[in-house]
Design goal:
By secondary structure, the chain is α+β, with helices and mostly antiparallel strands. Helices cover about 40% and strands about 15% of the residues. Among the domains are: about 45-100 and about 520-550, Choline/Carnitine o-acyltransferase (Fumarase C, Chain B, domain 1); about 115-165 and about 180-410, 2-Layer Sandwich (Chloramphenicol Acetyltransferase), CATH 3.30.559.70. It has helices spanning about 30-40, 50-60, 65-80, 85-100, 105-115, 135-160, 230-245, 260-270, 275-285, 300-315, 355-370, 390-410, 425-430, 435-450, 480-485, 495-515, 520-535, 545-550, 605-625; strands at about 125-130, 165-170, 170, 185, 195, 205-210, 215-220, 290-295, 330-335, 340-345, 385, 410-420, 455-460, 470-475, 555-560, 570, 580-585, 590-595.
Length: about 625
């Protein structure tokens, strides 16, 4: 199972993904979970020569010959016996012996919580769920009540340690992230953020937050005897919230969370000076999760619906619509529109996609089940409205956040397509990995558009290892370059093209296997670089080389997020001239989201989506036109 996301850090040229500032101690969690975690292997440090050799191979398709020749010289110098590379390698190996996971604390600070771009678009993924049948507030609240009950049902599995352990290739995976996604929140800092998790506190939270018309409410979701509220009880409480928040002229306090992290850090300190504001913010941060009851977005055609729903999940549509109806620092926010649109957005620090997708699959199934409605005998208290005192300074911060959000909204171009011609069935029929097949289609579509290969990120799960997060699958390889360059050459025979396709698909599968076993190059190189910083050594030249910068400039940032639910995840590009591509391959169709920035003249989400459809169909056609007997 592959996990979610890559980000490129502007200042340091490092990938951005996610980790907790301090992984929450698991000593409070006992029993099966702890026993399972203790049995997991530690993340290995790959051999230095192996990584150096594979780095050169990864550079070959994406840098020119002259630059590659220079990089080879630097790599040769770096890995000399007794040289700087070997010294850093030994330091890294010592670190690995002393820690549960040599990468996790670093991954955290440098690659994630030091990253100062807004979490909106640049970090937090959105998920579009299948459109629901309702189109009024009663339907919206009935579905919201079922969804809340479904999440609480999943929470009970986490609390009771009955979430089934996941396996990959027969090996158990680290389940730590499942214990981080509820009752957690990101906290802005002036230069670095932190993450808090209240799930393991002595008094775990029993409330969620609900936001409607930019107004936040605390909704207790458990009865005094500890049983969760029924769907009927939740519906009644949501009705009270709706009726108490009909005013639409309230200040959208939540839009502050969409700002550049340093700007939000300052505004946050200013906001919580006042006790009422501080208490309200703490209640949001401590809540189990947030439910956003959205106003209807502008109507669009059925064809455009998924793309519009994607931007609703990613950013809310701007200050005129639902961008203020969020608390973007909250780990989990479920979004339910009055018009049947639904999904979620999650702050990426505590987890990658798999735990989120497991939760989604569980909740969607739960909402389909018929529940007997029983009217409770005891009247429930009114959900508490959270108050904010809007000083002139806070008002100014809100106005600034609105302006910046609207600029970001206008710049993001998202196209969601349901590729209905085939799904996993076609690659499997030709004995090919569906993921590798789709990745080669992405390589082909990019090459056709730009006549070059580019650095491509696909996330690989490191959850075979204790506290494992992600590494990079580099989809652009020597074999993929040979395949895409030959594909449209009329002089090449079909049999040769199929052979090149099969070789490229196998090479991608091999890199994927290498990555999930902790033997990919990117996290190792990052570790060596950070070790140099920690040792106060001078920065090795290889990390200041143009090739290294090109390697981390991901024009294609991609992720496979497979789900049982017919949903699609979506996120923004990680570089100004790049694309963000996420896909969920189902049996007979594939859900894709493609994003780009309007401010870049060279990129276009709809054009890339069309090129991707064409590439998939052309690859299928090639396979079908080339009889196997001739291969």
């Amino acid at each position: 199972m592959l996990s979610i996301l890559a980000r490129t850090m502007a200042k340091t040229g490092m990938e951005k993904s996610c980790c907790l500032v301090k992984p929450v101690s698991v000593t409070r969690i006992t029993g099966r979970y702890l026993a399972h975690q203790e049995g997991l292997p530690h993340l290995p440090v790959p051999p230095l020569q192996q990584t150096c050799q594979r780095f050169i191979m990864a550079m070959e398709p994406i840098v020119d010959k002259e630059e590659l020749s220079h990089t080879k010289e630097l790599i040769a110098e770096f890995q000399k016996p007794g040289g700087v590379g070997e010294r850093l390698q030994r330091s890294l190996e010592r670190r690995a012996q002393k820690t549960e996971n040599w990468l996790s604390d670093w991954w955290l600070k440098t690659a994630y919580l030091d990253y100062r771009m807004p979490v909106v678009i640049h970090s937090s993924p959105g998920v579009v769920l299948p459109r629901m049948e309702f189109n009024d507030r009663q339907g919206q609240m009935r579905f919201a009540a079922k969804l809340i009950a479904g999440v609480l049902d999943f929470k009970a599995m986490i609390d009771n340690e009955t979430v089934p352990v996941e396996y990959l290739g027969g090996k158990p995976l680290c389940m730590h992230q499942y214990y981080q996604i509820l009752s957690s929140c990101r906290i802005p800092g002036l230069k670095q953020d932190t993450v808090v998790n209240h799930a393991q506190s002595s008094r775990p939270p029993t409330h969620i937050t609900v936001v409607h018309n930019f107004q936040f409410f605390v909704l207790d979701v458990y009865n005094s005897d500890g049983t969760p509220l029924t769907v009927d009880q939740l519906y009644g409480q949501l009705e009270k919230i709706w009726n108490s928040s009909l005013q639409t002229n309230k200040e959208p306090i939540g839009i502050l969370t969409s700002q550049h992290r340093n700007t939000w850090g300052k505004a946050y300190n200013n906001l919580i000076k006042e006790k009422t504001n501080k208490d309200s913010v703490r209640a949001i941060q401590k809540s189990i999760f947030t439910v956003c009851l959205d106003a209807p977005m502008p109507r669009v055609s059925d064809e455009m619906y998924h793309s519009r729903a994607a931007v609703q999940m990613i950013h809310g549509g701007g200050s005129r619509w639902n961008s203020g109806n969020r608390w973007f620092d909250k780990t989990l926010q479920f979004v339910i529109g009055e018009d049947g649109s639904c999904g979620l957005i999650y702050e990426h620090a505590p987890a990658e996609g798999p735990p989120i997708v497991s939760l989604i699959d569980h909740v969607v199934e739960y909402t389909k089940t018929f529940e007997m409605i029983r009217t409770p005998m005891v009247p429930l208290p009114m959900p508490k409205k959270l108050r904010f005192n809007i000083t002139p300074e806070v008002k100014k911060d809100i106005e600034k956040a609105k302006q910046n959000m609207n600029i970001m909204v206008h710049d993001l171009d998202v196209k969601v397509i349901v590729f209905s011609h085939f799904g996993k069935n076609v690659p499997k029929a030709h004995s090919m990995s569906p993921d590798a097949f789709i990745q080669m289609a992405l390589q082909l579509s990019y090459y056709r558009m730009y006549k070059r290969c580019c650095a491509t990120y696909e996330s690989a799960s490191l959850r075979m290892f204790k506290l494992g997060r992600t590494d990079t699958i580099r989809s652009a390889s020597i074999d993929s370059a040979n395949f895409v360059k030959a594909f449209d050459e009329p002089a090449r025979q079909n049999t040769e093209k199929v052979a090149l396709m099969e070789k490229a698909v196998k090479a991608h599968r091999a890199y994927t296997n290498m990555a999930i076993q902790g033997q990919a190059i990117d996290r190792h190189l990052l570790g060596l670089k950070l070790q140099a910083i920690e040792d106060l050594a001078s920065m090795p030249e290889i990390f200041m080389d143009t090739s290294y910068a090109v390697a981390l400039h991901y024009n294609l940032s991609t992720s496979q997020v497979p789900a049982k639910t017919d949903c699609v995840m979506c996120f923004g590009p990680v570089v100004p001239d790049g694309y963000g591509v996420c896909y969920n391959p189902m049996a007979n169709h594939i859900n894709f989201s493609v994003s780009a920035f309007n401010s870049c003249n060279e990129t276009n989400a709809a054009r890339m989506a069309k090129a991707l459809e064409d590439a998939l169909l052309d690859m299928q056609s090639l396979l079908e036109q080339t009889p196997k007997a001739k291969l």
